[in-house]
Amino acid sequence: xxxxxxxxxxxxxxxxxxxxxxxxxxxxxxxxxxxxxxxxxxxxxxxxxxxxxxxxxxxxxxxxxxxxxxxxxxxxxxxxxxxxxxxxxxxxxxxxxxxxxxxxxxxxxxxxxxxxxxxxxxxxxxxxxxxxxxxxxxxxxxxxxxxxxxxxxxxxxxxxxxxxxxxxxxxxxxxxxxxxxxxxxxxxxxxxxxxxxxxxxxxxxxxxxxxxxxxxxxxxxxxxxxxxxxxxxxxxxxxxxxxxxxxxxxxxxxxxxxxxxxxxxxxxxxxxxxxxxxxxxxxxxxxxxxxxxxxxxxxxxxxxxxxxxxxxxxxxxxxxxxxxxxxxxxxxxxxxxxxxxxxxxxxxxxxxxxxx
Length: 356
Fold this sequence. Notes:
By secondary structure, this protein is α+β, with helices and mostly antiparallel strands. The chain is about 30% helix and about 15% strand. The longest helix is centred in the middle third of the chain and has 16 residues, at about 140-155.
């Protein structure tokens, strides 16, 4: 796609301009803001790089992404120009080889690309990290996440029915962007744990399923809260327990990653007992598992049941470091969310990228 040179009726009629974008196939099904040169230039003005710079691409499709294309898609998504550094960081993250964009953008599994934003930029842009975390109502969250989807469709060819072969998909494929609630968290933020400097800003891109809500307003111990989370983590039917992902997990080679979002009450319950994020990860990694018998019954492991299968277990993740834990969501409400990766790490690995 190119920057829109508005002429004729579209120059004076905003509805006509939006309809033009529909006819070009540039939308995700919702109306977009026409990417005029003036609007794109305003977006690029917040970056110190040339508009023709190639950021990367999907070579399997012979598609490559320029800075101007990113700007045009972000404008269409409704981003304000000051969102530019976050959008750019997110795009650079998903274009890294280990993210393997061609996989999650094409698979029948219907992955969304979740963005987790950290650092001072969260407050500067008012990115939501609290109530209604995954829901509507915040421009920054909605439009930054949507910009990534439009880049995938318009620049990378991930068009439903063409290269996007999702069987079901999920609502996060419209927009999937949150922030970690660092001011109210007792723990190190995600991007610092993943190697970024304290006080810096970063975006973590994660190809994943939709969030699975965990409710537990009864337990007053870390073990009680985390046992509930473990149960959801290890349910049969996620990408980490079926679809062939565990066919070779006995050798520890094909597990994926998983993100745990803990809202205020669950965070307080766990942290008030002195547990760190590392403690949380270790507990979850040790207890999130299924028996070989269960996996055989569900088809995740081939073969007939054998003696001892009920007592042999396969962990959901290979290492505790494959579990990402963040604090976000409302202060009231004893809830968390479990978000499994789209597939094993050999297919796509989360990437954390600095916001310049």
